[in-house]
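input
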Amino acid sequence: MSAPKLRNLGPRSAAWLRQVGLRTREDLEAAGAVEAFVRVRRAGFRPSLNLLYSIEGALLDCHWQEVPEARRLQLAEAAEAATAQLPDPRARTAAGPVTTIVHDTADRDDAMPDDTER
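output
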């Protein structure tokens, strides 16, 4: 985040937010806490829910632990629903089985002649 520094957001959180295009308080307000959190996750970072609560606290200008428990539950549920469709950056698709194809060249016109025909 650029000046002024927002409450609850340390250097790493601010860097993540900058990297996903959220550079000012206005950017953060426009996106909202859940969308900002999802953007960070989508970018491949692995934030904890504390980032979500910290963003909400920054927007409310309070310590993240002062965000009411009911609101934190709403935020967590919304973030989980929004990130459920994101691919797991640690998951890798297993390679498919390897198959070997042997081509029979005896019936082809352009097949190389064997040594006996030379």
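quick obs: The domain at 1-105 is CATH 1.10.150.20 (DNA polymerase; domain 1).
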